[in-house]
Amino acid sequence: MIIAVTNQKGGCAKTTTAINLAASLAAMGHRTLLIDLDPQTHASIGLGLRPESLGATIYNVLSDRSDQKQFMENIIRPYSEHFDIAPGHVLLSTIEQEFVEKDQAVGKLKQILENLVFPYEYIILDCPPSLGFLTFNALFASDLALVPIELSSFALFGVAKLLSMIELIRVKMQHAPRVCALMTMVDLRSRFAKSMMERVREAFKDNLFSTTIHQNVACRESQQAGIPVRHHDPRSRAALDYDALAHELVAQLGDGSIQVESRIPLENRSRIDTRSRVRDFSFQGTTASQVFLVGDFNNWRLDESSKLWDQGKGTWQKRVILEPGRYRYKFVVDGKWVADPSNNLAEPNPFGGIDSVIEID
Q1: Rounded-to-integer distance, Cα 144 and Cα 166, Å
Q2: Chain centre distance of CA 225
């Protein structure tokens, strides 16, 4: 399921919701990908990344410039168990100019996600706080538009324009996501907040999550630390609220309260059952500056696509999907070829060294 978290109004906890909903779904055991489509890159920064220092981001996937082009699988970074992120970049602010005269540009993201090899149950899109090219792409690719609404005087301003864009997608593209609102930054100590809750309920009726996200200092603390709130303080009100939202979303999908159409092309459906073939390779090297993964599965190719991500504290990681078979492989650490120290299955190679071996059933 693809969920666009979107609202053109800033300060409504849009990115906070994208990060923490993804983290809570992952904690439930659902393989989840968060895609940062906002040129401000707050979702990436909120997970401790510095996009300006990354070799490739979602910009390189969306861009058609041949000198910067990357496959989606090459820019995805593992964050924690079941939780990956496709980081954003400030250059996303220029992407619309690249596609200004291309008719099929509005379906660019949809096409990329339909052809994504890695098997995710949930893909969360953190949209920009605007109704431009990137948001249009996200809405067209999505099954659900989750609209965070904070309870201020301007809470419902701009929502009508968002709904108009969704209706335009429905008319022009014969598809539009289901819309559900989420009340955020809730503080019920004031009568004004209570009256705004009633206005939001009246506006969205059944298209409103019953879970509300309460205002809580733990969210700000987790943002400063660059981690999801449930990793910062799992007993905080905010962490419990986002866990409740994840459970409500999954439950509504299960009982049909939220109905979405299956838009996976027939030729791609065989890719869904690939979970058993996803492998995470990791290497511990506190002094390493670069680590690559090479083996039979990539023709021992040493290039940008085989580079492991630096997860910090000496941990390097890469996720790949492998066809059934038996593969020899090694790490290349700052130019030195080494076997996988965490894998006891190994065999001699013709050059007098040792290769690690992995078998996929």
Answers
A1: 11
A2: 19
* 214 three-state secondary structure: strand
Which among 18, 6, 31 is positioned nearest to 82, based on CA atoms? 31
Match 């082009």 to its residue by tokens: 69
Q: What is the pLDDT of residues 108-147, one digit of tens each?
A: 999 999 888 788 999 999 999 888 889 989 999 999 999 9
Distance CA 326, CA 345 (A): 11
Pairwise pLDDT comparison (115 vs 104), residue with the higher score: 115
* DSSP 8-class letter at 93: G
> Using one digit for the tens of pLDDT, what is the confidence trace for 312-342?
788 898 888 888 899 999 999 999 999 999 9
What's the CA gap between 290 and 282, in Å, rounded? 13
Taking residue 108's Cβ as centre, other Cβ atoms within 10 Å add up to 22
Spatial neighbors of 159 by CB under 8 A, at least 6 apart, are 7, 147, 149, 181, 203
Model pTM above 0.85:
no
Residue 354 β-bridge partners: 348
Place of tokens 């379906």: 107
Let me know: does 89 contact 62? Beta carbons within 8 Å.
Answer: no
Contact between 200 and 149 (Cβ < 8 Å): yes
User: What is each CA distance from 309 to 25, 124, 288, 293, in whole angstroms?
Assistant: 23, 21, 12, 11
Mean pLDDT computed over 140-162: 82
